[in-house]
Every structure is written in C-alpha cells, then in structure tokens.
Amino acid sequence: MVFDLSAANWPQFRGPQAAGVDTNAVAPTRWDVEKGENVRWQTTIPGLAHSSPIIWGDRVYVTTAARPGKADLKVGLYGDIESASDQDPHQWRLLALDKASGKIVFDKLGYEAVPRVKRHTKSSHCNSTPATDGKRVVALFGSEGLFCFDLDGQLLWKKNLGPMDSGYYQVPSAQWGFASSPVIHDGKVVVLCDVQTNSFLAAFNLTDGKELWRAPR
User: Fold this and answer.
1) Which of 5, 117, 185, 188 could form a disulfide with 143 if both were Cys (CB 3.0 to 4.6 A apart)?
2) Where are the domains of the chain?
3) pTM for the whole structure
4) What top-level class would CATH report for the domain 44-74+82-216?
C-alpha cells in the first residue's frame, strides 16, 4: 500500500467524485516491493479480488472472495472466452486495515455459498469496489447480493439482486463475472446492473436497504 498518511478520505471507486485523482497528495513515481522502496506496509489478504480499497479516517476497507485452496488466475493475452470452473463454496468478506500499519482490524464474513455465476479466468468473484459515507460500508458482491455493514464490520442489511450475469453478449454461456460498483448519495445506494437479461438501475435506502426505485435499461 502506497499513500500519503495525510490524504483525504477515498470513499468509493476512483475516489471523491469518481475522479481518480487526489490533487492534495504527491504520489511516488517509483517503488520496489522487494526492496521496500516507497512501500509503507504490505499485508496478505485471503482470497481473490479485483475490487479496489477505500479509505475512511484511519482505516482501509477491502473486500475479497475466498475459497479453500488457491483460486486460479490466468492473466495475459490468450483470447480464451471460457469461464473458470469454481464449484467450491466461497466466502465474501469485508476487511478493515489500520491505515498507518496495515494491521488487520477486522475480517468479517458477509456471505458463504457456491458462486451463482461463473467468472472469467482473468477475473474474480469480487470485482466491485465498496463505498462508504463514513457511517456505513456498502459492498456489492455481484450475484450474491448487496450488503451494508457499519464501520466495525457488523452486517446491517443485505439484498438479493438476483444473478448478475454480465458476460460476453455474443456468447451468453460465457460468464465473466460482475464488476459495477455501488455509489452512495443523499442517503441512497445506487447500483447499475447491466447483465444479459433484465438490466436495471436501482436505488436503495442506505439505512435499511429498502428499494426506493428501479428503472429498466
């Protein structure tokens, strides 16, 4: 993890206003993990995830999907559209780390089951970045649902959104996994679910998870 300890909160995918830029921080232009150059700390996170970390106060929040053994990840250019075969139960988890030291503050289970939808071999079952308003953390675990925790990792509510199959539209059988991230605004959680069938945009009450509206896409 590389960042300025005085940096502002980073509450969602790409940070404030989804700009992806912090104009108040000066990031290093180079680092070396093996030598520890410009690396303040390094912490092993269980499982496999492509979601980004978020920051609020003195904590870094990350999500992951863990399974027994090591999940296969095949990167590079190879042109294969087939899905990974993950038949083991997975655990979708929310972790908080101390921003200064990298120490894991908590590791909470959100959901456990065999994945409802497959993933691409380059992807994971936890691609969506969580979001926070400074009181709650919302994680969209794809086909496993929308989950809301307090800042200490206690589950407040969850919503089943149905299977989130957003694979290759020309080959519907090729399931690649879900990646759209939730946004928190004005006491609402907004999720964009572009999938093979019945795509929608929906808003939920941040306090109790009640669905406020839904629009087909």
Assistant:
1) 117
2) 44-74+82-216
3) 0.91
4) mainly beta
